[in-house]
Amino acid sequence: MKPDGPGVCPGCRELSRADAFADERRDYSTATDCRLLLRRHRGTAECAERRGAE
Asked: Helices H, strands E: what count in the chain?
């Protein structure tokens, strides 16, 4: 994941932070869910990082 900045997709950032928070709490089920949602999000037109790559 890219560091936080103006070019980072807000949805990607939110899901990545939720993943990190779940890892800190050792809630590995939630962390796995966050990674899955992040992967799905990156495949949608809503993802600003994907739009920037086109």
From this structure: 3, 0
Q: If DSSP states are collapsed to H, E and C, what string results for 1-54?
A: CCCCCCCCCHHHHHHHHHHHHHHHCCCHHHHHHHHHHHHHHHCCCCCHHHHHHC
Q: Are 40 and 33 in contact (CB under 8 A)?
A: no
26: left (phi over 0), alpha (psi -120 to 50) or beta: left
pTM of structure = 0.77
Token reading at 42: 């990156």
pLDDT tens per residue across all 54 residues of the chain: 445 556 689 999 999 999 999 999 999 999 999 999 999 999 998 898 776 555
